[in-house]
Amino acid sequence: MLPPKAYVIGTLVVFMLYIVGFCIQNTELIFLSKQEQTIHWSQKVTEKTIELEHCERKLLLNSGKKRKMGLNVLTPWLAPIIWDGIYDIKILDNQHNGTRIGLFVFAVKKYIRFLRPFLESAERYFMVGHKVTYYVFTEKVNEVVKPKVADGRILQIHNVVADQRWQDVSMRRMEALTIFTKEHMPNEIDYLLCADVDMVFNDHVGVEILGDLVATLHPGFFLSEPESFPYERRPISAAYIPYEHGDFYYMAALYGGKVEEIYKLSVACQKGIMEDKKNYIEAVWQEESHLNRYLLYNKPTKILSPEYLWDANLTNGEFIKKKRFLAVQKDHQEVRN
Ligand code: 5GW
Ligand code: MN
């Protein structure tokens, strides 16, 4: 038997050793370094801000009878819907180091006036710091005033026929897309975005929008019920979508994806357009109707919120904090004559 004094000392020594061990193993708990504290704090703040923004959008929604789906950050098939704050651009920029991105744009007849502001704003906001190739299509190749593009960016200007009828202009756009996604782009770029030219970039638009197949919610219908989407409803059209179907209404002014995916999409849309032409009908919103039909059966892997397509004339702008890609106000009669 040890004397009681030695027993007490022994217990104390074991206890102290245990405390020292605990401190060594958990230094970060006891001696919080300043940097770690900041990271944890800023992460919490970011998370709270995202949560708040999300709640704010949903609270705004309670004010009327509107559909919630368009405000979600995930579709029922688990594709992300890109809203401000749901991604970390630093991580994504690193992942896309070396990624080559194309921007396809059509500017014939009077729409040529929109080209310069389009390209200049793209230089400022579109995929800054990445490899970008612009694919511009126009009938006035020599008249294009080429803006200076940053290092790593290329401006290609291609000649195209300027059709008289606007229906043919939209068909020609699909045709050019089919040809280029098959013949030229596979060797030049990884992802392609197709955009209307009567638009300007107004805030950051970066690699967060890249995905296999990407479509943008139409800013006029993101809170509407599917019954009121302006899909083509006549069964005779190749763009037909029955009333019980449809997830979202997408706008044809911005969509994209891997080059191969856009090739498949453009072939399918063009086929639909030609089929309709044979039957002497034309889908209610031309290629946009065919695009919506394609995307119903070939679900996009990523969806862009109306931050990526906005028009100042629209209501519900309070839901959209950052208006990144804006329609230029135009006199429809004037530019189309
Ligand atoms: C479009 C409609 C009627 C007559 C002409 C055109 C037209 C479209 C044109 O003369 N030139 C032209 O380059 N376009 C291309 O098609 C542009 O890239 C334009 O942004 C795109 C879609 O046409 P938009 O912008 O008039 O369609 P909305 O739906 O934005 O009004
Ligand atoms: Mn447009």
- Count of folded domains: 2
User: Major β-sheet, in short?
Assistant: 8 strands, mixed
The first-level CATH class of the largest domain is given as: Alpha Beta
- Global mean pLDDT: 90
CATH superfamily of the largest domain: Spore Coat Polysaccharide Biosynthesis Protein SpsA, Chain A
Structural class of the helices, strands and pairings?
Answer: alpha/beta
For the biggest β-sheet, the strand order reads 1-9-7-8-5-2-3-4
Q: What's the helix count? A: 10
Tell me which CATH architecture of the largest domain applies here: Alpha-Beta Complex
Q: Report the strand count.
A: 10
Q: Percentage of helical residues?
A: 25-40%
Strand percentage lies at: 15-25%
Examine the coordinates and then state which fold CATH places here, giving the name of the CATH topology of the largest domain. Answer: Spore Coat Polysaccharide Biosynthesis Protein SpsA, Chain A
Instruction: Indicate the low-confidence ranges by residue numbers.
Output: 27-37
Sequence of secondary-structure elements: HHHEHEHEEHHEEEEHHEEH
Q: Give the terminus-to-terminus CA distance.
A: 109 Å
